[in-house]
Amino acid sequence: MREKLKTWILAILVLGSLVESYYLIYRLPGSDSAVMSENLYVKTDNMGPEEKVENLLYPDRMIIHMGGGKHTLFYPDSTFYDLIFNRLKGRSFESFQRRSVEDFDWDKIRSENAGIELSFGAGIPVTLLQRVMQLSPDSLFEGESIDRIWIYNVKNDSKAHAVFFSTRGDIVYEAAKADLTVQDVQQHVDFGINWTPYTVVNGDYYVPEEKLDLVEAEMPSGMYTIEQMQSNLFFDAGSTRYIPEKDGSKIYTDSKRSLQVDQELNWMSYSDPAALPAGESTSAKDALEAVDFVNQHGGWNGTYRLASTEEEKQERKVSFQQYYSSYPIMSRPQLQYGVIILELQQGTVSSYERSLMYTEEEQAVKRIVQLPGGDELKAKLAQISSGSAVKDLIPAYIPVLQRDTLRLTPVWRVTLNDGSVLTIS
């Protein structure tokens, strides 16, 4: 009996030792399992779902040229925009020929020829564009970034023309083979016949001849906690220490990485200067790395579009623009919201910035408001452009924080040639 009792006691002690060893190996800070533990924790503290890069690649607007000096515009998430873009994504473009932008009379093409112009803002690398459109680029074209695609018909020509504009400004690539007929282009253009007419100004921007109806939305808002962001960004959130700053912001660090939180602006800045370089870096690879990083460290709290992949000295800045409905949300000095910004060094994220605010869009209270158009808008633009000419005009939203709600107010966002941005409401 005693021998059996000793055997049971020994078995219990061995089992207890195994359990204790398990916790020592897999639960203490600094063990190899910390990465796995953190990844599991991140999923419970998501700021939003993960996103595929393909869903972040789309034009910021679609300009429809109907001939006879008539134009209209479609914006993302609108019926005709989605219909046309989805059809174009299924078409193939091959045999690209490099030409000078001066080989074309763009004013004449814009005024006289039926066509579709896709604007990609600051530009998109061709290797990323291949993920949403069927392109067969040569090595030269593959290294470019594209800010516009213009597909149009020419009178007495049996084929449609497709031209891709390099962000360098002086070069275009024309697809000698395009899986589009003249009838296809005309059918797409015809969707704009009964839409709001626009007038082109100086070949740069378009002014609607009528007032534009937009939705103003007010929705409940909140803020992600510092603890949530620590869990998202540090391998071992418990090892961080707090460093107070004189300007009222808070800094948390684990000696390698740092998280700075500005609670007045509801804005966070994360930096990892010791991040190991991944090696070869291109604008496309860095954009993909940026998407992966956001997926793994918070997710996407809304609808976003890849806005730019700017190279600055030895760093590359990748930014994503948040949208509400069809239009971008403008970040302002007094309320930074609507953008996610990452900096990469040799393919590795070294800096990550975003708002800590979130909204509950499904509970939004909406009403229709009108933005000025026609002569009224032209007069306002003439006043603005007295110092510097207008370069771009697009509807946008300004975020206004009111206690526990966020109001998105429609405005015209006006970009001047000197780079400054103004608004007209």
TrEMBL record:
Gene3D superfamilies: YycH protein, domain 2 (3.30.310.160)
InterPro entries from the UniProt entry: YycH (IPR009996), YycH/YycI_2 (IPR042274)
Boundaries of every Regulatory protein YycH domain copy: 3-418
Pfam families the UniProt entry points to: YycH (PF07435)
Top-level division of the source organism's lineage: Bacteria
Protein name in the entry: Two-component signal transduction system YycFG, regulatory protein YycH
